[in-house]
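Progress against Task 2.4 (sequence-to-structure conversion) is shown through the following example record, which the project officer requested during the mid-term review.
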Amino acid sequence: LSSSSAASDVYKRQGLYRGSVVVDYFNHCVGEQIAQRVGALQAEERIITILEVGAGTGATSRVVFERLRSMNCRVRYYYTDVSKAIIQKAKQVFSDAKLDVEYRVLDLEVPFGQQGFEAASVDILFGSNVVHATSDIAKVLGHLRGLLRPGGVILLNELTKLHLFSTLTFGLTDGWWLFADKSIRIRGGPLLSLASWKHQLERAGFESVVAYSFPSANIDDVAQAVVVGEVAATSDADVEQDRNQDSNASSLQNEIVNLVAELVQVSPAKIDVNRHLGEIGIDSIKFTVLSVRLS
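Structure tokens generated for the chain above:
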């Protein structure tokens, strides 16, 4: 590992991200959870947007692709990773994915709007053992939540206990030591306990946070879990309330425009609402009159 290859690249080529009973189990757990969510969204008869962060060489992606193909659903899938080289390789490996897949470089530390991603545009967002490898969990979860539309869901497949093997292997990668928020990490590494993951997701604004692990395991004492959180759905009542608020705001603006136009003796159509009152011709005396009329 002292060569020019990054440790993470060596591990990925050696298959540490798939091929073991535990790794494969959790990859399939992610695939099943995504399939359930996609199934529920199919009734809306629209394209379902899925975004995978830190996809790497696609150990989890491979499982999810297989499940999606079997469902014959309309999906747009964003395969993302911080490494441009990994993205280029993934394009070749999954060239026959038979899905609408877009391959993009994505840095979790940088606001996604600056990287060409639209806010509130994703239905399902997931990642496997990647979010812990960031400097600030709260900041990153905020970025992730901003991508999800109302009713959207996040799935994080994460190690939740620190073992010597993890430190001796993944501890050689740069991402293992990026963290600056030590108070929420398990001592000696970047991992979070399951309780901490739940707390951080709730703090970030996610609701109905639940975790999945081995069926027979005590969920509060597992070494790995798929943690799921939801963004609150916008109800018809909320939409109507927003519409009414917009209508009220528009009516108030029109009333103010009419008053200003009357004071400066011009047509309301000539009032630019983006200009300061002083630029329109409202001096201190007229401003006093305007204030009285508004009150």
